[in-house]
Amino acid sequence: MELAIKIFQFILSISILVILHELGHFLPAKYFKTKVEKFYLFFDPYFSLVKKKIGETEYGIGWLPFGGYVKIAGMVDESMDTEQLKQPAQPWEFRAKPAWQRLIIMLGGVTVNFFLAWLIYSCLIGNNGENIFEAERMTTPLHYTEAAKKMGFQDGDKILKVDGKTQKDFKKLALDILLSDEITVERGGKEVTFHTNDDGKALAFNDPEPKSFLTPRLIPVIDTIAFKEASDAGLKVGDKILAVNNKPITFFDEVRPIVVPFAGKTIDLKVSRNAEILDLKMPVSKEGAIGINATKQLDKFNNHIDYNFGGSIKRGFTLTIESLTYQIKQFKLIFNSKVQGYKKVGGPLAIIKNMPVDKAQDGSVSIDWTAFWSFTAMFSVWLAFLNLIPIPGLDGGHVIFTLYEMIVGKPVPQKVLENAQMVGVIFLLGLMLLIFGADIFKIITNKF
What we know:
- It is a single chain.
- This protein is α+β, with helices and mostly antiparallel strands.
- It has 12 helices and 17 strands.
- It has a 4-stranded antiparallel beta sheet. Strands 5-6-7 form a 3-stranded antiparallel beta sheet. Strands 1-2 form a two-stranded antiparallel ribbon.
- Helix 1 packs across helix 2 (about 100-130), helix 2 (about 100-130) packs across helix 8 (about 310-335) and helix 2 packs antiparallel against helix 10 (about 370-385).
- The radius of gyration is 26 Å and the shape is elongated.
- It starts with a helix and ends with a helix.
- The model has no long low-confidence stretch (mean pLDDT about 85).
- It is a multi-pass membrane protein.
């Protein structure tokens, strides 16, 4: 059931994003009286699931859920249909339109993606408000793992600035640090600035939970039980963890490093309950979790903010820009030789696996719509960024060639466009196969 819900969410999210992205190309093309031959959700090599021609445009749904496309007459695109390009340009063809109109058509998709993310974030903020985990108010000491210490942290450090900027929301602090160049801390009463070491970032980034290198030190009193298996094993809210596999526990962050190596197995948990000591056998999930938390101790540092209509629009814009900035910074980690972020890149299977769901204590699963729309907004920004990369085959490639024409005053030769498009399509197909293959390899090697 959980897998079915995740697949449904993935298809729904991708469908929304693709249809609106392609509408961003379709509507200005029609406005400028350019012929659109096809409008497809998903790709349709060899055959399509559904198709219907209305007017001059064939609308359809393909069987390969990796995106979608609009086929515009007179344009060198991924279809590599160059026969019509051998004929004189017709007034209704893309190539016959002024460069500024072609530029608007090509930028339409990413523009829609940006405004869609802005709209979703604004609606979420307007409806739910925002919880800020105020870092400056937090008095709980921080636990720095081996990865954090390799980055340059020491026990007792109080984080002041990341790349010269303060971060008010502690929930974003760990990601900021992973993407940072330098950190300023208060250490021994003095202000110290150091450059973050990539070796430490690599160690953190390869952890199943990359942000766990920086955690508040909490008393190990359970306030949340997410897994039915934990309740069935006898665990209750309010239990204080004394030991895991006979290893004494002082802080809650000490539990996870002991539990993770026993993924898919059983651990011994010693807890105290009303002055009584209990020994429990606790099953560990295949992801290395037992489904408990103690984070409600931090509720006193949470600040809930509600926004009026104007405020939600403004905050939604800020969150969209913030999301875009994070996407660009994370993209750099993919090519970092030490961090090797490319190992974390996943395809459709990885996205489905990480789709958000709402798990009840009785084991039932449902859609967490707030998390779903947050994911869709983030993914919309990600698609906008990816499509602007100047690679032939993506919108960014077409934009670069069009800008060249507008600056130089003459178009790029047709043969150059065709060859560049072919190289771009081959590159993108190869990249797609590599990413999809990486997902399959992880499944085969139980590293998914």
